[in-house]
Design a protein that fits this description.
By secondary structure, the chain is of the alpha+beta class. It has eight helices and twelve strands.
Length: 260
């Protein structure tokens, strides 16, 4: 099984504060355990929401809202995709998340979500693309809905259209990765609280109430600018709807992360 570990945003990530001492090395060790077993997919951070937009698409047209966004604790600061035998096994692995990550604010929230689309969709996977530190990569996060949180299955023709679009964009070298996320009913949140290496860990099983703030899928693309990424996001044949909202975020480079 494949899971996404979402590192939720906080005041430190939204301000792009330097990471805690030793955190970069600790995160590398955390990810290496999966990479050594061939179980690591994407592992990346996102620039703060001040550099992001939300795009709404519906029968009445489209609209764009510029960041930053107020609901900091529900934003995504980054995510890691791993393979695990079960949800319980993935939660056990999440307990090894670097304690230094909680030192900046005293608390870190991780959200675990099973990947995949209700009804089935073809994953676009590229671990190498996720770990390339070059600029010009954007992530389109599909916001969830009541139907998505019920694992409603879209019409097959919509899934087929999405698969065909993704295949063509991946073949053109634009789409680097993408997948859906199952409802938060199958997920969990792991909270790390404390500092100085003394961390208390608590686990809350889904579902989670704030459906519109959850993520139902993602695409990672190459784009020359945010405007180009917005134009690409307008072309996606989303299988959900008729109203769709996506959040468009730029991938954080290592230089930005360490404050170079």
């Amino acid at each position: 099984m494949q899971f996404m570990i979402i590192r939720k945003a906080d005041a430190a990530t939204e301000a792009l504060l330097p990471p805690a001492p030793g955190l970069i090395e600790d995160m590398e060790r955390f990810h290496r355990q999966f990479a050594d077993e061939g179980k690591l997919g994407l592992a990346l951070g996102l620039r703060p929401s001040a550099h992001a937009v939300r795009l709404k698409i519906g029968p009445d047209g489209t609209g764009i809202t510029d960041g930053p966004f107020a609901e900091t604790k529900e934003l995504v600061a980054g995510f890691t995709i791993i393979e695990a035998d079960s949800k319980e096994a993935a939660i056990a692995l999440m307990r090894g998340w670097p304690a230094a990550d909680a030192d900046a604010t005293g608390e870190v929230t991780l959200e675990l979500r099973e990947t995949g689309c209700p009804g089935g969709c073809t994953e676009v996977a590229s671990s190498m693309a996720g770990n390339d530190d070059s600029a010009g990569r954007y992530v389109i996060l599909l916001r969830s809905s009541a139907d998505a949180e019920c694992d409603a299955v879209p019409a097959q023709e919509k899934l087929d259209a999405l698969d065909a679009f993704n295949e063509a964009e991946a073949g053109a070298g634009v789409l680097l990765a993408g997948d859906g996320l199952m409802s938060s009913t199958r997920g969990a949140r792991v909270r790390l609280a404390g500092s100085g290496g003394k961390i208390d860990i608590s686990v809350i099983d889904g579902p989670f109430a704030e459906a519109k703030e959850l993520i139902a899928g993602f695409w990672m693309i190459r784009a020359k600018s945010l405007d180009a990424a917005i134009a690409w996001a307008r072309r996606v044949p989303y299988p959900t709807g008729p109203d769709v909202e996506v959040e468009i975020r730029e991938v954080l480079t290592m230089d930005e992360l360490v404050g170079a």
